[in-house]
Amino acid sequence: MRVVSKIDEVRSIIEDAKKNNLLIGFVPTMGFLHKGHLSLVAESKKHTQFQVMSIFVNKIQFNNMNDYNTYPRDLENDFDLAEKNGVDLIFLPDDDEMYGNHLTTVHLDRLTDNLCGACRPGHFDGVFTVVSKLFNIIQPHVAVFGQKDIQQAVSIQKMVYDLNFPVKIIMGPIIREDSGLAMSSRNKHLSREKREDALVIYKGLKRAEQLLLNGERDSKIIINEIEKIILKGRPDKIDYISAVRFSDLSFLDTIGEKAVIAVAAFFGDTRLIDNMVIEYERGRIKCVF
Ligand code: PAF
Q: Are residues 68 and 146 part of one domain?
């Protein structure tokens, strides 16, 4: 596995891989790798032969500088895990290499109006800007994003379509701890007690699944039920519990098409997000966590 920090070096290594007819897979990350990231690499390996991972804590997507400053970092462990999981190349730029004196921002309308877009001003502009740059630098055939950040994954799919990036976007599943807690680098900040409390998010989503399987389709009723369960964990703040269309992330009153129920809540200072996708299989509802 090679680790490089300069754009020119990445380009030349990837050019060589392409000359050898290898398809390039890409997993962008902010480091502090866990099984969620590694599952994205495993997904990428199903489709491509040369795995690139970026590790870059992208300051411009943080709407809270304390969150940026305390974002967990452990490069030695990241290198170890990446190598053991078949990453061929790590791109590890610094702020200067990525942004120098940049003046351009990539913005996507509508899909970012709700959910995290409404609670974290500027966040998605930062994400789309860095992801566009990474796509242009790496020029992967396939890029994999996790379902946990569903608004990010759905919006990037749209950005790729709108801006004609020649890359196929794949969404990898949410990876959970045995308790049900969705894996996230930020979980490191949770105290033992808050980690226990935070399980109400998963429990709330499970309750929503049960209601849906029993025929409930009214978003308000489902959201109220989730909220009741989440409140039992004494969250410090609930940013949202929302039901949205999968296609454009607009709010849904009645669940009658492919949809997402998404949650964001603070436990202590830690903001956690989670969701489930509601699909239909031969007319039957199926919840994908
Ligand atoms: O999902 C993340 O970790 C980040 O938003 C990403 C895609 C690496 C962009 O900085």
A: yes
Q: Which atom of ligand 1 is nearest to the CA of 185?
A: 3
Beta bridge partners of 273: 264
Q: Catalytic residue at 47? A: no
Strands 89-91 and 50-55: parallel
Q: Whose Cα sits closest to atom 3 in ligand 1?
A: 29
Please tell me the distance from the alpha carbon of residue 252 to that of residue 32, in angstroms, as a whole number: 35
The pTM assigned to this predicted structure is 0.97
| The residue count for the chain | 289
pLDDT score recorded for residue 283 = 84
For residue 116, what is the domain's CATH number?
3.40.50.620
Residues 166 and 204 both lie in one domain: no
59/195 same-domain check: no
Element (H, E) at 264: strand 259-267
pLDDT of residue 269: 94
- Annotated catalytic residue: which of 37, 123, 141, 189? 37
Beta bridge partners of 260: 244, 277
Cβ distance 32 to 73 under 8 Å?
A: yes
Q: What is the mean pLDDT of residues 2-15?
A: 98
Domain containing 257 equals 185-282
